[in-house]
Amino acid sequence: MLKVKxxxxxxxxxxxxxxxxxxxxxxxxxxIKNNELxxxxxxxxxxxxxxxxxxxxxxxxxxxxxxxxxxxxxxxxNVNYFHAMSFNLTNFSSIVNMDGKNGQINGESWQNKIFYSxxxxxxxxxxxxNIPIKIVILLLSQEWVINxxxxxxLESRVPHQKELLEDAPLQxxxxxxxxxxxxxxxxxxxxxxxxxxKLFYKGYVKRLIAHVLDRDKRDLHPEEVLKYxxxxxxxxxxxxxxxxxxxxxxxxxxxxxxxxxxxxxxANIFKAMYTKSYLQFFQELKIEKAADLxxxxxxxxxxxxxxxxxxxxxxxxxxxxxxxxxxxxxxNAATKH
Length: 337
Prior knowledge:
13 strands; about 40% helix
């Protein structure tokens, strides 16, 4: 097991501190490139990145797999200036050591998947070997928390408001809900262009925080009737299909089976999560991509193939259902100077 020690620090030094922690216990070096940790093949693969999104606010994205157990040990600091808020989509059960006290987090439960802690507190958790890790961590300065959470306002409903204002060492957990899962997955799965990275993540992070702070005001809680593991399975299936839009859309029965549920159950949960049917959701996605390619003056047959239609006439019919004109007319209008 690799025991990786690090500190809760600012955006500018967080990745460097984690890399130093890895390099202190591994012969193969972890390096930093383009805001990401690059792991040697013997340690792991995937994304471990960090982006500055606002003054006093950064986002860490973990979508990676380690090839041996990694025990992450966050050392307690002398000052409480930095805070961390993590959103855990990983589906394994784990023991989190919080200042010497062990707490069980059930991988198949909505409970305790959001974890908040301040720099004066220690923290330890283990990423098991060969298990995909999907976590978003927000790094927040104390000043950002006080100002943006509006802690000095009497009507603020932030959990542990008094302790946050008093700068007390603090650790607490919150339950995940459906909207939080979907927003966290969007942050993990999205790959915005370099020029748009900061603005993109800033928007999603602020939506995520606003949702968590505001959710007690809402009465609808679909997660009360949805199993957490079913939701994660569908989120992963959706991402796999989105990554391969050039392929024919898999049959609903096959996708449902891969998610370990019946077709009717899959269809109902998918619509509850994304407000559209399975077919409608992905056909719209494919047609929107096709429209972008037509704007680039692609040939109709090439566009059809690039979004998984083997039959050009079928593609033309579906495209016309969405845009009310055939793809050829759409391309002519879009490319007219």
